[in-house]
Design goal:
The chain contains 21 helices and two strands. The protein has about 450 residues and is mainly α. The relative contact order is 0.17.
Length: about 450
């Protein structure tokens, strides 16, 4: 009964907190924490300090990239690919947004791509819903394929804390192909979704009005005619070089500095958590020095603000979850181990709906992964279903999905009459299910 009551309090904190955004989620989680400690007498859990410091370093680096103009270079390259192959926009657009997220670590890069994707699609008389909805899904799926995303940084840190020697390269060997094939499967399905524009009575009725027709077809949105400074390209080069260095260090631990944990104990390589933190800060400093970045503007960037919200959200949610779960760990271990032993998909389902509750892959991982690892669930299961950490498309309330609907002036990307029959539901489910299946096969083959 006490476990059920504690869990209800936790769920209420999540449901209420999400209504106020990421910072609200962290603040309301603090209410649950106080209830557990002062009301139930639970020992306070331990905040995920290593995870939060790593998130801070990664977000700082990504913010320097955006402020330097490096992100604009990536967006211009993506637009060039789409405009050279306009008839294949439904396949190429989601791959593009997925790849941008993999490079930058945040799905918010898709906002600038939406008007470009819409323009390419409508000029080719392609139903904009087809490439746009799946591109929004793809941008979020790319988070678990990015070596510099909060989600991947968190899961690598939790694996390290749990004592598992699994490099970031191995994690990416599972997460990159699983999320990519999930995106590809969703894109292929999207090629034939909905009616053709000439056969859609709602669309034809909309453009029957000359003013509305002008609004729907609009003017061309483009970055191609903009000349970008050389410093923008230097910033991208430094950033990509840094990602490659992190991947190499994670896969070659013998070449890392080794330190003894105590007298008489063998020296061990430095933690990859610390390596990521140091390299990310170093990359940020190189961009600062060589690209003439105004450091004062970094804190005002969209990437930095979104990253700080994610950081505080993980802080509040993870600390509260750790306090609850640690007190009931013996019971939870038995339930989780028995459920996952018989139904491995149980972990995926828990991760999926937790993600929807907290509207964040990183926060979902902060809740579910440490619990599973401490309960004795093998890391191969955690990595197999990493795609399942993206479940917040289930209800069309996430900012990128709402922005996608707003950018589609044709009205084809929308929330359905019954809420759940929205434009993102089927692409999201196809992407996650395919990603989990591919991840399961790859993870069991290499780990």
């Amino acid at each position: 009964m006490e476990i059920a009551l504690g869990f209800i309090i936790f769920l209420l904190c999540l449901v209420i907190g999400v209504r106020f955004g990421g910072l609200g989620l962290a603040a309301v989680s603090g209410v649950g924490l106080v209830i557990y400690v002062f009301g139930f007498g639970y020992k306070p859990g331990v905040p995920p300090n290593d995870v939060m410091l790593t998130i801070l370093a990664v977000v700082t680096c990504a913010a320097f990239l955006q402020t330097s103009g490096g992100l604009t270079v990536l967006l211009k390259l993506a637009e060039k690919i789409l405009r050279r192959n306009p008839k294949n926009v439904t396949i190429l657009a989601p791959i593009t947004t997925w790849f941008l997220t993999v490079l930058c670590g945040t799905g918010h890069v898709c906002y600038t791509m939406f008007p470009i994707i819409y323009d390419v699609a409508i000029k080719q008389n392609i139903r904009p819903e087809r490439p746009m909805a799946v591109s929004s899904v793809a941008a979020q799926m790319g988070i678990c394929g990015s070596p510099v995303s909060v989600a991947i940084v968190s899961i690598v840190s939790f694996l390290t804390i749990a004592g598992y020697d699994i490099s970031i390269a191995k994690v990416l060997m599972v997460s990159i192909p699983s999320t990519f094939f999930g995106v590809l499967a969703a894109a292929i399905w999207s090629m034939r979704r909905g009616k053709e524009l000439e056969d859609d009575p709602e669309f034809q009725a909309l453009i029957a009005d000359p003013e509305q027709r002008k609004y729907v077809y609009g003017s061309t949105e483009s970055l191609l005619d903009k000349e970008l400074p050389r410093s923008y390209y230097i910033a991208v080069g430094i950033f990509i070089a840094g990602i490659i260095i992190i991947a190499l260090m994670g896969n070659l631990p013998d070449y890392l500095p080794h330190f003894s944990a105590g007298t008489g104990k063998p020296a061990k390589p430095i933690s990859m958590t610390l390596v990521i933190q140091m390299v990310m800060l170093c990359i940020a400093s190189l961009i600062l020095f060589f690209c003439k970045v105004d450091a004062k503007k970094v804190a005002d960037s969209n990437v930095f603000r979104a990253g700080m919200v994610a950081l505080v959200s993980v802080y509040g949610v993870a600390w509260t979850a750790n306090t609850l779960f640690a007190h009931h760990m013996d019971f939870l271990k038995g339930v989780l181990i028995s459920a996952v032993a018989v139904y491995p998909w149980a972990y995926a389902i828990i991760a999926f709906f937790t993600s929807k509750l907290v509207n964040s892959q990183a926060a979902a991982i902060a809740i579910v992964a440490p619990l599973a690892l401490e309960a004795g669930i093998e890391p191969v299961i955690v990595l197999s279903f990493i795609s399942a950490c993206y479940g917040y498309f289930f209800l069309p309330t996430y900012p990128s999905d709402l922005a996608c609907i707003g950018f589609d002036r044709s009205g084809t990307t929308k929330i359905g009459k019954y809420i759940l029959n929205h434009s993102f539901m089927i692409p999201g489910l196809i992407g996650v299910i395919t990603g989990c299946c591919v991840g399961y096969v790859i993870a069991h083959a290499i780990i």
